[in-house]
Amino acid sequence: MHLRHLLPLAAFLLPLRLPAQTSADTGSIPDPARVIHRVQLQRRDIFDPDERSWFAKLANSLHVRTRPAVIRRELLFRPGQSFDSASIAESERNLRAMGIFRHVQIDTIRTPKGLMLRVLTKDGWSTQADWRFRSTGGQVAFTIGLVENNLLGTASSAAVRYRKDPDRSSVTLAFRRPRLFAGTTGLGVAYENRSDGSIAAIALDRPFFALTSRQAFRFEAENRHERILRFRDGLDLARDTLSRRYTLVRGAAAWAIQASTAGYLRAGVAAQVRRDDFQPESSSESFARTVTGAVGPYLVWNRARFLVTRGYAGFAREEDVDLGTTLRVGLGLAPKAFGYERNGMGPEIRGRVGGRIPGGFAYLEALANGLYTSAGLDSGTAQVAATTVFQPGPRHVAVLHAEAGWRENPTPGEEFDLGLGTGPRAFGSHAFTGDRAVFLTAEYRYTVVEDLLNMASLGVAGFVDHGGAWYAGSRRRLGWDAGVGLRVGASRSSVTDALRFDFARRFANDVESAGWVLTVGKGFAFGSLGTGSS
Q1: Cα–Cα distance, 249 to 397 (Å, whole number)
Q2: What is the DSSP secondary structure assignment for residue 488, as one 8-state letter?
């Protein structure tokens, strides 16, 4: 895709106008009867006051309730402003997105003095034991850790994890505090000590807090000393082993050209400096130091539409699903003066669209990017994914997901790599690798009980997976599995995604024999494009 192909699209986006949804947008005089007189917070603990068991009292005594200031800063309305249902709904979404509440509700109450908004939040148990286990044949991968998502009631998260898989072991420490500086700018830091290297990262960001927000920025830096194992044809032994030295410093800033509760048009600019060097692990030579830079603008257009549902990723809890339309286009400039061999440009496009369907909802995601030079396409990626969700009854949900990907000249370690919990869940580590990939999965879940002993939700599921990866010019390598599983969710937890205990039957392919596999994971066997699975 060349620049001339993107210009008509940008020209089409710029004139788009978004309809005003609030009195502030239209400039109309607010109705005195609709002016907010007071905002009242009702902060509940993990267990409600009428739940008086010894366990409830113990849990509440050990938990620090979310601080009022943490809640108030997420609200998009203030006393003296006109009532706006769109801002109320977005405030509820903001609070749920924090991942620290088990229930959020904002009600309107008429009082003799005027309109009062009551904000009810019920904290979830935010200290989580993160444990996952996958076993395929003789291969085992597991993660154990402790995660606190609401440290001292500040919405800060801290985590420590130990992970062991056939390739390496690692210990990870991470901390994240949104709105740490000036009530707007967040900080995140992470360090991972691997048996064969290390990763360190830091990020400062001020995101768009609402659809109507006017500006945002992000700065991030990452440094990696790592070993890259490259597998092929489903073999257990790596075909190639490389040492990597990687450093990335990146910054981005964006401004809203148009913004309302109906959506937005935003323009931004991003710039980066990157070092990425490889050499064979057995080499005794010193590392080269290749430094490149890139800079470029981008546009993001959104038409907002959200659905509040239950029983999708978790059980009987409100979940926000984005069914709007979002389109991002950008162009990165990579001149020879910034360290590249040739002058180049990197177009990007990414989109998502969703909607209601009979009995449920569906959404489609796609992305494409690449680097073009005078010699043609240097490298590129294209991926597409579709997800359909049917909810025929309050306790029933069926999820169908399909995705496919293509990569040209991927950086070592960036190839598609499916197996041991990623993609078809019954196959071993690195069972499918390549620059082409496809994955399809279907799952039907029935919720047996939503709140067992006021602590847990239980469900049963049946599933089937099909997918694989291969290199261009070689034969396609695919695999099938199917099975049943148990789904467990903590009804008092702040985490929505259910734990899954799956007993899967792997069907034989060209490398793997047939067999039964037990896996323990979290959420679905797929994620949004670029995130992978749990």
Answers
A1: 43
A2: E
Phi, psi of 281 (to 5 degrees): -60, -30
Name the one residue in this structure whose structure tokens are 């009987």: 316
Contact, 513 vs 136, CB < 8 A?
Answer: no
pLDDT tens-digit series, residues 75-118: 999 999 999 999 999 999 999 999 999 999 999 999 888 899 99
Among the listed residues 421, 369, 391, 392, the one whose alpha carbon sits nearest the alpha carbon of residue 529: 369
pTM for this entry: 0.88
Do residues 435 and 404 make contact, with C-beta atoms less than 8 angstroms apart?
no
Beta bridge partners of 111: 114
CB 307 within 8 A of CB 324: no
In whole angstroms, what is the distance from residue 177 CA to residue 495 CA? 18
DSSP for residue 58: H
C-alpha span between 504 and 485 (Å, rounded): 8
Rounded distance, CA 478 to CA 304, Å? Answer: 37
Cβ neighbours of residue 32 closer than 8 Å, sequence gap 6 or more = none
Q: Name the fold adopted by 125-522.
A: Porin (2.40.160)
207-251 pLDDT tens trace: 999 999 999 999 999 999 999 999 999 888 888 899 999 999 999
> Domain 5-22+30-123, what fold?
Ubiquitin-like (UB roll) (3.10.20)
The residue to which tokens 């709105």 are assigned: 179
Instruction: Calculate the CA 426 to chain-centre distance.
Output: 24
